[in-house]
Amino acid sequence: PGAARGRRAPAGPRRQRRAGAAAPGPGPEGPEGPEGPGPEPEPEPEPEPEPEPEPRARARVRAGARVALGLPAKKDPYRDVDAEGPDKIKILAEYLEKRWSNPESEKLVNAYLDEVFRDVEVGEDGGLRVLEIGSGTGAFLRMLARRKEVNNVAGIEPSEGLVEVAKDLASRDNHLGTSDVKFTQKHAGGESNPFLVESFDVVFFHTTLMHIHPPQKRRRAVLEAARVLKQGGRLAVFDNDVPSWHFDLEEGDLLSQPLQSYAAAWLAKPKNARHAVPSLLRNAGLEVAERDEDCWATISGPSTSDEGARGALKEAVNYCVEHKLGISGEIGEAIMEIADDRFKDGSLGPKVTRRYAYCVAGKVIVGESAGWCDI
């Protein structure tokens, strides 16, 4: 009946015969006919393998930092923090506080905040209301609270354990002045927040936006940030700028190749922060500040610890080995052995400088010029 209606017969070796067609049978010179066996039926095409949900390369890029934190080797250390238990929460909290609660980091962050707060109008109440999405232990939020422009700070953090740490540290900080400091625990993270429309002058993602997974949740987090941002307010994204980390190496140094190859490959990836963030902000209806070369400004941080420098180098070596960027596994091991010797004798660690980049966007008041973006 299918052939009578003009339908195509199913493809493959089970193809149906048309009505009235002769059935295959023995030929005149044997069961396969005089010409031998007929053409083999076309094999069914093999299905393409499904891509890995979490490619090994992505996990290896962050391997050094995870090992330094003592966290699982194939997981972003900032995901599902509470599931790791109190010991891991303590390790992560100590790392975050060590990273940001020191004079050098505060100097770096305040230089960045000077830029963000530039031209932001202070309200009638005499101070700005700011929000950090992904506030962790509150180290950055406490810096905000010490700023003279700020009188109200709030933080959203998906980890209940880190929120408890943040509240305890804030309660014992004697330098917060009169600023009102509040932390809120939300399991959904930044893609859903409890605040009213246009209730903050500035919203921050401080080294957190690219840790929100998957990308759909990241987009929702930016949309939520734009929703609670006041007209004329600012949204700022601050992140690690891996390609511009500075290793003070001599020309031709063996360690230079993996670092340079990794930086070039990282910049070329369409999903890295430099490519992804500006479009995320624009798609949320925000005006992104333009820079000389792109939408990012780079700022140098303090020299990193030996553990941090070794982690950065290990990330670069693993990436080059994984993607066959001129380094085999054997050569990669040899490079790390040489690096370890140099870390031990002090000839490498102090010469590594972390660099960060920030991108600022504004919620332009309807009918007004966005000239502030032309920096």
Gist?
With 375 residues, this protein is α/β, with parallel strands linked by helices.
Task: Write up this protein.
The chain is of the alpha/beta class and 375 residues long. The chain has eleven helices and nine strands. Strands 1, 2, 3, 4, 5, 6, 7, 8 and 9 form a nine-stranded mixed β-sheet that branches. Helix 5 links the parallel strand 1 and strand 2. The radius of gyration is 29 Å and the shape is globular. The protein starts with 55 loop residues before the first helix and ends in a 13-residue tail after the last strand. The N terminus and C terminus are likely disordered.
Ordered list of secondary-structure elements with their pairings:
Blueprint: H1 56-61, H2 63-69, H3 86-100, H4 103-117, E1 128-133, H5 139-145, E2 150-157, H6 160-171, E3 180-185, E4 200-206, H7 215-228, E5 229-240, E6 246-247, H8 256-268, H9 273-283, E7 287-288, E8 297-303, H10 306-322, H11 329-344, E9 352-362
Parallel strand pairs: 1-2, 1-4, 2-3, 4-5
Antiparallel strand pairs: 5-9, 6-9, 7-9, 8-9
Helix pairs in contact: 2-10, 8-10, 10-11
Ranges where pLDDT stays below 50 over 5 or more residues in a row are 1-37, 50-74, 367-375
Instruction: Tell me the overall shape.
Output: globular
Largest beta-sheet characterization: 9 strands, mixed
Whole-Å distance between the termini? 73 Å
Please report the number of helical segments.
11
Total E-strand runs: 9
Radius of gyration (CA) equals 29 Å
- Elements, N to C (H/E): HHHHEHEHEEHEEHHEEHHE
Average per-residue pLDDT, rounded, comes to 75
